[in-house]
Amino acid sequence: MATMREIKRRRGSIQSTQQITKAMKLVSTVKLQKARGRAENSKAYFEYMYKTVTSMLAKAGDVDHPYLRGGDSENIGIVVITSNRGLAGGYNANIVRMIMASELPKEKVRLYTIGRKGADGLARKGYIIAADYSDVIDEPTFADAKEIGKQLLTDFAKGEIGEIYVAYTEFKNTVSHVPKLMKLLPVKTEDLQTEQEEQEELALMNFEPNEEEAISLLIPKYMTSILYGAFVEAVASENGARMQAMDSATNNAEEIINDLELKYNRARQGAITQELTEIIAGAEAIG
Amino acid sequence: MAEMFELKIIEPDGMFFEGQASFLEFTSVMGEMGVYANHIPLTTILAPGVMKIHNDGQVKKAAIMGGFIEIQKDRITVMAENAEWPDEIDVERAKAAKKRAEERLQKKDAGLDTARAEAALKRAMARISAAK
């Protein structure tokens, strides 16, 4: 049985760990509230953007444009959004696992990583990283999304990548975050034409300048907004995941502390009993 | 009273404006445009410029920094990349930005990103004229 001093020391160390996890939980709770507000505010923009662009492309189905057809390259660009810091439960590992489980061939994948954890994890697995923008995720702005979107489209135009995906964690609610792999380019028009209710409006829509030019101008905006949307959701998910991880860490620490407290009391009681027995035995021997 | 339509201006950080309007003026990549209710359905790309929202003789101005606009018969949706009311605009800063952009365009350095400088100039001018 461990001595009283050992138990006491162990309990002290776990208590200070618990204080850290508790503080981290509080910090991520506050950050989560902020990030969630941002994600909710911007949702209207993205939903509308998605609706407009997809319905527009559905109508422009016969336009031959590289954004609809796909690039000449076989390489696949994936924007991977993870966090720069760990201690967020399975948040980063889930994204890495999702990419590995996807059927995209490793040799052809070019990663555009945002978040050091995902970048490190995937680089270790042998994925090729084309560019890294890890600093962005600390405080993503619309301008950052624009910059990265521009880079992606430049590489797409140069023929370095032929398809563009984005991997991020969707923020469903505080406790549920789902890793998601989403295809940005080329936009598959077959999938879009199923939205029947839009058909009526579609038939009447005019474009200025003409459709092809409008697509060239709209797609970069569409990319930017989808990326920005993914950023804000990812930040919300990251803080949600960290909050949960730290909450369970705090609870686990509590459990261990209780357990050690019990052991300590038992050891103390044992020591007292032993001392008493010794005194009594001593007294008897004298008397 | 002129016929009204529903106007929504959405920017990435949330809803910028939502309400009724009778006439809307804005700058598209094709030039200046004005739209009343019952316009033919049209989608067009916005250039940085001033948007004027008319509502029964009252006019509200806003600086819009690019995006696109979708016009339907009875509603108009503006997807702005950034939108600002005149009282949110720092005129001094916009003037400084305008000067900087003009200087850069005049110098014509080899490494000059003309499109970027021009866009900066247009944004600055949109802000200044909206704040007037």
Which characteristics define this entry?
heterodimer, A: 287 residues, alpha/beta, Pyruvate Kinase, Chain: A, domain 1, five-stranded mixed β-sheet, 8 helices, 6 strands, elongated, B: 132 residues, alpha+beta, ATP Synthase, domain 1, Single alpha-helices involved in coiled-coils or other helix-helix interfaces, 2 domains, five-stranded antiparallel β-sheet, 2 helices, 10 strands, 27% helix, 45% strand
Question: Could you describe the 3D structure shown?
Answer:
The complex is a heterodimer of chains A (287) and B (132). Chain A has one domain: Pyruvate Kinase, Chain: A, domain 1 (3-Layer(aba) Sandwich), CATH 3.40.1380.10. Chain A is built from eight helices and six strands; from the N terminus they run H-H-E-H-E-H-E-H-E-E-H-H-E-H. Chain A has helices at residues 4-59, 66-69, 91-101, 116-124, 142-158, 189-192, 199-204, 211-286; strands at residues 76-81, 109-114, 128-132, 163-171, 177-185, 206-208. In chain A, helix 1 (4-59) packs antiparallel against helix 8 (211-286) and helix 3 (91-101) crosses helix 4. Chain A is elongated, with a radius of gyration of 28 Å. Mean pLDDT of chain A is 84; it is low at 193-198. In chain B, strands 2-1-9-8-5 form a five-stranded mixed β-sheet, with no helix packed on it. A five-stranded antiparallel β-sheet of chain B has the order 4-3-6-7-10, with helices on one face. The mean pLDDT of chain B is 84. Chains A and B meet through helix 1, strand 6 and helix 8 of A and strand 5 and strand 8 of B. Strand 6 of chain A pairs parallel with strand 5 of chain B.
What topology emerges from the helices and strands here?
The complex is a heterodimer of chains A (287) and B (132).
Chain A: H1 4-59, H2 66-69, E1 76-81, H3 91-101, E2 109-114, H4 116-124, E3 128-132, H5 142-158, E4 163-171, E5 177-185, H6 189-192, H7 199-204, E6 206-208, H8 211-286
Parallel strand pairs in A: 1-2, 1-4, 2-3
Antiparallel strand pairs in A: 4-5
Helix pairs in contact in A: 1-8, 3-4, 5-8
Chain B: E1 5-11, E2 14-21, E3 23-28, E4 31-36, E5 42-46, E6 49-55, E7 58-64, E8 67-71, E9 75-80, E10 83-84, H1 91-107, H2 114-131
